[in-house]
Amino acid sequence: MKGFIKSAVKPENGEDSAYYICFLDDDVLVEKSNESEFFPLLTNEMAKKFGFQKECFIGFLNNKSCYTLATADKILSDEYQYISLRDIFLTREKFIFDITGYAKQIHNWNRNFSFCGRCASQTVLLPNEHARLCERCQLINYPRISPAIITVVVKDNQILLARGHKFQDKQMFSVLAGFVEAGESLEDCVKREILEEVGIEVKNVQYFKSQSWPFPDSLMIGFTAAYKSGEIKIDDNEIAEAGWFKADALPKIPNQRSLSGELIQWFLNNRKQHSNENIK
Ligand SMILES: [Zn+2]
After folding, report:
1. Dist. CA 190 → ligand 1 center (Å)
2. Residue 105 phi/psi, 5° resolution?
3. Do residues 216 and 105 lie in contact, with contact meaning Cβ atoms separated by under 8 Å?
């Protein structure tokens, strides 16, 4: 794949062929063998045979139009297979994950907001941007992104890790994360979440980096922080177990492709420099 250009503006002239990013729940249809194409590149005739209807235009992949759509039933084909977005994240190159994650979020939004949340009328997709307008009450709805903070907390060369009740892998520990509330700064969210979840106060909150997290529509914003005060006291509703871990005695931790994995790696790379007063 050479390049992907995001766009909401469909080409004026119809096209002979296009990429179809076809979702069945959380799975996406991909070619079985040819990595260079990956998503089905189909002529209009071939698309018709599969019963594909173009739902939402999302841009150009290798100069070809790219549409999302959903099917209720599995497409049975020797050429194609389904793969989950999570497996794409874990096993494919970042470029592929970025396109699929973007496509999934625009696709979900386009479907979920086909009716106005204020007056319940049907909405229309505007031609020049990803926006859905209610023509009756003029409410415009844009794709939603839910910001969440994720923070590595360090104390005396130890890292704060916790295991959440909702984790699929019951052995896995990670850094703490939580959704930003209305009216709250990111830094305040870091302090509140860590205090609420494990009873620890933090200081020196510093931005690290961010990562789009399309499960289903988050933006993870990573921070580093230093321990300030308090003893670990977990919120039983959210957290199953939490503790301070030394670099040479870490439990099972997330893949480094995730921001949580990167934050833990940052701790490992910089552990000699960590102290309570200055963690960078
Ligand atoms: Zn309305």
Report:
1. 36
2. -70, -45
3. yes
What would the pLDDT profile of 188-200 be if each residue is shown by its tens digit?
A: 999 999 999 999 9
Residues 6+ apart with CB under 8 A from 46: none
Helix ranges restricted to H, 12-132: 44-50, 85-91, 94-112
Please give the domain boundaries of the chain with CATH numbers for all domains: 4-112 (3.90.79), 117-143 (no CATH), 146-271 (3.90.79.10)
Residues in the chain: 280
Cα(272) to centroid(ligand 1), Å: 57
- pTM exceeds cut of 0.85: yes
Straight-line distance from the first to the last Cα atom of the chain, in angstroms, rounded to the nearest whole number: 38
Which backbone phi and psi does 181 adopt, to 5 degrees? -95, 160
Q: 4 near 61, Cβ under 8 Å?
A: yes
Contact 21, 31 (CB under 8 A): no
| Alpha carbon of 111 to ligand 1 centroid (Å) | 16
Q: Which 3 state secondary structure label does DSSP give 25?
A: coil
